[in-house]
Write a structure and sequence with these properties.
The protein is α+β, with helices and mostly antiparallel strands and 496 residues long. Helices cover 49% and strands 10% of the residues. Bound molecules: protoporphyrin IX containing FE. Protoporphyrin IX containing FE binds next to helix 15, helix 16 and helix 21.
């Protein structure tokens, strides 16, 4: 009784927010499905039910959770330097990612963000276009083997290519996932994500002992060991080489100096630059990054930097294959830029892929790779005139629902890349946020857009894409990342 009285839900401000009817003690916990797909459908159903207000609340026991998907309410949450702490659920990522950029809070996050921002400078990103092209080329060669035949699932092809890209750009290590998808590292990275997501959804796996006793705790730890020993080995080798080489004197500024637009730059002869090199430079410059600090950032890039882009490219491929008039325009754009040439894309080409950029953005509107993300509210905040969120509320920002607001996207389910033409793109700055927004937005968004353009343009130059599923049949599941549950089936026809 004393527990109940202590935890009784007595928050009139919170109860002003509409939401499903709670019951004593459990709140709404009993109504939420532990199954990922069902849970995601519920989230979408609730957001449709309260679409006019753009906000709803849920009680999980005595925990207050509010889903927000109205631009005007999201702005004060994301635009502020106050509510930057991640929601509690991110703790399940800690064993793998430690408290790297994605999961850290407070001062640690501020220092790291400042330190890592230059590593995503466009001059550094130039260096990665070579990696994007090489790996996209491997993917296209593999796709040529299944082209001009029946439908197949394109998701694994894209995912392995994105994995090869992030391994090479983050760690400078060629893992050849596209050639060897059975490697321990590739398997571990795929499995651990599944275990983490399962744990997030199932409250009975939250205590460690139950996760190990009843859940996949041991398997999770085996994956962790594989992943950490791989990254540790790469970091050790790379830092040893870094120490011995002349580039010991190199600073991040030195690396950025003198980069031409179309140059692929190597830190040393024959060795491409990787994010890891930047971290080693920063460490050598006296930023006190320990071995573990470096590892958690590399692991964070590995996690954030490949599933997100793979899902985005896969959904975009489906949408292109399902809208022949869009595809015709894209083919025209590719032909204008490349003619008959087989040359790899350079930075100038990417800038000219204007319609492809609109297409990628529109696909991210309908299928944002991060469909929702959580923040812990650190002090009371007013949302418009009507609602106040109290300190310690968990706010879940829901781009996948926000992006369907008819005030900003009329006929919101229609796939229409023209919405992102410069003349049509004048809307509320928080109405479209696939990469989040404000100070804690995605640090990798330029990298992601470049990668998407290189991979999609490589496909479009060689193939006609024909989608053999309807959008309703794609079964997207929104866990940490929105992905097609059973993949995405397409047919490819070689272009003459
Ligand atoms: C289409 C691709 C991508 C999408 C849609 C995306 C989306 C997002 C979103 C919504 C967040 C905020 C998450 C939160 O607040 O919990 C985020 C954060 C982040 N993303 Fe991305 N991302 C993508 C690709 C990438 C890539 C390629 C990288 C790295 C190479 C990356 C690295 C990060 C990092 C490190 C953070 C944490 C930033 C911070 O808290 O300061 N992302 N991303």
């Amino acid at each position: 009784v004393s527990w109940y009285l202590k935890n009784k839900r007595t928050h009139p401000d919170f109860d002003k927010i509409p939401g499903p009817r709670p019951i004593p003690v459990l709140g709404n916990a009993h109504q939420l499905s532990p199954d990922a797909k069902k849970f995601y459908s519920q989230l979408l159903e609730y957001s449709r039910e309260w679409a006019k207000v753009g906000i709803f609340r849920i009680w999980l026991g005595n925990k207050q959770i509010v889903a927000v998907y109205r631009a005007e309410y999201i702005e004060p949450l994301l635009n502020s330097s106050k509510h930057m702490d991640k929601a509690d659920e991110y703790r399940f990522l800690h064993p793998w990612l430690g408290t790297g950029l994605l999961t850290s809070t407070g001062n640690k996050w501020r220092i790291r963000r400042k330190l890592l921002t230059p590593t995503f400078h466009f001059k550094i990103l130039h260096d990665f276009i070579g990696v994007f092209n090489d790996q996209a080329d491997v993917m296209v060669k593999k796709l040529q083997k299944v082209a001009d035949k029946g439908p197949f699932n394109v998701f694994p092809y894209i995912t392995l290519c994105a994995l090869d890209i992030i391994c090479e750009t983050a760690m400078g290590r060629h893992v050849n996932a596209q050639g060897n998808s059975d490697s321990d590292y590739v398997q571990a990275i795929n499995k651990i994500t599944v275990h983490i997501l399962l744990r997030m959804r199932r409250p009975w796996y939250w205590p460690d002992f139950l996760f190990y006793l009843l859940g996949p705790g041991r398997e999770h730890d085996r994956c962790l060991k594989t992943l950490h020993s791989f990254t540790s080995k790469v970091i050790m080798e790379r830092s040893e080489a870094f120490r011995q080489s002349r580039s010991q004197q190199t600073t991040i500024e030195d690396i950025m100096k003198g980069r031409g637009d179309d140059e692929t730059v190597y830190l040393e002869k024959g060795k491409r630059l990787a994010f890891l090199d930047m971290l080693l430079c920063a460490s050598a410059e006296g930023h006190h990054l320990s071995f573990e600090d470096i590892r958690e950032e590399v692991d964070t890039f590995m996690f954030e930097g490949h599933d997100t882009t793979a899902a985005a490219i896969t959904f975009c491929t489906h949408l292109i294959g399902d809208h022949p008039h869009v595809q015709d325009k894209l083919h025209e754009e590719m032909d204008q830029i490349f003619g008959d040439s087989d040359r790899p894309a350079n930075m100038k080409d990417l800038k000219e892929m204007k319609y492809l950029e609109c297409t990628v953005k529109e696909a991210l509107r309908l299928f944002p790779s991060v469909p929702f993300f959580g923040r812990s509210i650190t002090e009371d905040v007013k949302l418009g005139d009507q609602y106040t969120l109290k300190k310690d509320t968990t706010a879940v920002i829901v781009p996948v629902a926000l992006h369907l607001d008819e005030r900003y996207f009329p006929d919101p389910y229609k796939f229409d890349p023209d919405r992102f033409l410069p003349e049509n793109a004048n809307r509320h700055p928080y109405s479209y946020i696939p990469f989040s927004a404000g100070p804690r937005n995605c640090i990798g968004q330029r990298f992601a857009l470049m990668e998407e353009k290189v991979m999609l343009s490589s496909m479009l130059r060689k193939f006609d894409i024909i989608s053999t599923q309807r959008r309703e049949d794609l079964s997207p599941i929104g866990e940490l990342i929105l992905r097609p549950q059973f993949g995405v089936d397409v047919k490819l026809k070689s272009r003459k």
